[in-house]
Amino acid sequence: MQFTIKLEESNEGGYTAQCLELPAAISEGDTIEDTLKNIKEAIQLVLEVTQEQALVYSKVYKVEVASA
């Protein structure tokens, strides 16, 4: 899977990253490389939690949405 990452320089130094498809996935790092590594871990954690939460619900559906 591929995700879109917004990467910004922090005022305090280093970088902040946010996954645009999963807004709960946010991370930071001292270098771009560290930040990208950290955001990958954040995305994995968000996906794990989301999957665990889906098991709690009685009915879960998947839908496909086409983008323009």
UniProtKB/TrEMBL annotation:
Q: Where is the HicB-like antitoxin of toxin-antitoxin system domain?
A: 3-63
- Report the leader peptide range: none
Pfam families on file: HicB_lk_antitox
Q: Which Gene3D superfamilies match?
A: 3.30.160.250
Q: Which InterPro entries match?
A: HicB-like, TA_system_antitoxin, TTHA1013/TTHA0281-like
What the entry lists under SUPFAM superfamilies is as follows: TTHA1013/TTHA0281-like (SSF143100)
PANTHER family, per this entry?
ANTITOXIN HICB (PTHR34504), UPF0150 PROTEIN SSL0259 (PTHR34504:SF2)
Q: What is this protein called?
A: HicB-like antitoxin of toxin-antitoxin system domain-containing protein
What species was this sequence derived from? Candidatus Argoarchaeum ethanivorans
* Organismal lineage: Archaea, Methanobacteriati, Methanobacteriota, Stenosarchaea group, Methanomicrobia
